Amino acid sequence: MSRIENIKSFFQQNESNEATGKAPKGVCPNCWGAQEWENEYYKFKKGNNGNYDNNTYDTFIMKVARMLGKIASEGNQYVCETCKMKFEKLPV
Ligand SMILES: [Zn+2]
Q: Is there a contact between 36 and 67 (Cβ–Cβ < 8 Å)?
C-alpha cells in the first residue's frame, strides 16, 4: 500500500475504534504524534460538518503525507530523515 492509503486506512480504523498502531505504516511514529494528525483530522471533519467530497478528503490526506518526513530503511529498522529517530519495522 502507498503511504496515502496507509494514512487513510489508519484514520478509518481509528474512527471505527479498531486497534491501530501508534502511526500509519511507513510513517515515523515520533513525527506523527508530534504533529497531532488525529486532531487535525477531527478538525478537518468538523470544519466541513462531516460533509465533504472525495477530492476534499484526498487533498487533506495528501497534505498530511507531504508534511510527514521521509523514512529510510536501515537493516531491520527504519530511520526518520526528519527527526532521526530509529524504530522497528512493523510487521506488514
Ligand atoms: Zn520522525
A: no
Q: Using the mean position of ligand 1's atoms as its centre, give its distance from the Cα of residue 2 in Å.
A: 18
From ligand 1's centre to the CA of 67, what distance in Å?
11
| Structural domains in the chain (count) | 1
**Lookup: cell for 82:** 526528519
69 lies in which domain range? 3-88
Compute, in angstroms, the gap from residue 72 CA to the centroid of ligand 1: 11
pTM for this entry: 0.81
Positive or negative: CA dihedral 19, 65, 88, 30 = negative
Structure confidence by residue, pLDDT tens digits, 6-64: 999 999 998 899 988 888 988 888 899 888 899 999 999 999 998 999 999 999 999 99
pLDDT in tens, 38-54: 999 999 999 999 899 99
**CA 52 to ligand 1 centroid distance, Å:** 30
